[in-house]
Amino acid sequence: xxxxxxxxxxxxxxxxHEVTVLTSHPGRRSTATEDGIRVVRARRLPQxxxxxxxxxxxxxxxxxxxxxxxxxxxxxxxxxLSDAWAAAKALRFGGPRFAFSFHGMPTRAHLVNRRYRPEMxxxxxxxxxxxxxxxxxxxxxxxxxxxxxxxxxxxxxxxGEFDVGTSxxxxxxxxxxxxxxxxxxxxxxxLEAFSLLRQSRHDLRLRIARTEDPHLSPxxxxxxxxxxxxxxxxxxxxxxxxxSASASVLASEEEAFGLVLVESLAxxxxxxxARSGACPEIVDDPRLGTLFDGDDPAALAAAIETTIALxxxxxxxxxxxxxxREFDWSRxxxxxxxxxxxxx
Length: 344
What we know:
By secondary structure, the protein is α/β, with parallel strands linked by helices. It folds into 2 domains: 2-156 and 329-343, Glycogen Phosphorylase B (Rossmann fold, 3-Layer(aba) Sandwich), CATH 3.40.50.2000; 159-325, Rossmann fold, CATH 3.40.50.2000. It contains 13 helices and 13 strands. It has helices spanning 2-14, 61-71, 81-90, 108-111, 117-127, 136-146, 187-198, 235-244, 259-266, 279-282, 297-311, 316-325, 329-343; strands spanning 20-25, 30-34, 37-43, 76-78, 98-101, 130-133, 151-152, 173-176, 205-209, 227-230, 247-250, 271-274, 289-292. The strands form 3 sheets. Strands 10-9-8-11-12-13 form a 6-stranded parallel β-sheet, sandwiched between helices. The radius of gyration is 21 Å and the shape is globular. The model has no long low-confidence stretch (mean pLDDT 94).
């Protein structure tokens, strides 16, 4: 969500909106203007001693309530449940009306994963002026379990930042930008499929973006021969990783959106994804990539092989870039502005 919030804020600022992002960090409170966005970083308060059972980021709630009440904002938009809960509490003290974007897949397993999560969601949804999810796939369980029909506000990319024109790597390279420190991303499945491919493609390489796991998962992976970590730190660096690969892979199930798929397409690289969650909504044409079923490494390996072949076709790059541009923030942002007009 951090990248989405930044790019959305930057696009809104370019369109003349006054945008403030409320966040936290370990140091003293600070205020800065970054890419046209006013960023207020409060000192991160200690998290309650809940032994990992309660909702994430609850320690930030007092800061968020105070900032919303003092801020004189027309609209607040929360992207984390704890922030939305704070925005709902702030209404009692004169805080702004708010929208809440649920950026996950609201399956039953997710809803009961944290203590009081269903109660917090019910409290928020009763008070939010608008609420949304990222895809049709996420909207279905949201309606089923939370008994409300959400709006759909998809993620986006600044597509031009990913169209870097880098040549495909030699030897053939597969790239994964998913956070494999999260077991839900099924990193072990990806590595097993890659090892199967290496039996016939001895020079095949796999590059995996080493990203910080947001919830400090202890899950670790041992990389097989031919696989290596990549450490892109800027959008330009990760764009080159996508563009130089012959295929990028997202092996996880029940993705609420799949931003890394859109980024790869915007860079001109076809994708491999599970036929699950929102992935089929993004990869809606077999000429953009390959969907695979289940948790069979052989099925994933076959999908990667098919997509590598797809990348050799001259028209694939332009077709992928065109699909990525459909999610450019210049197109997507109007749907967000419609919600802000409604809430205000």
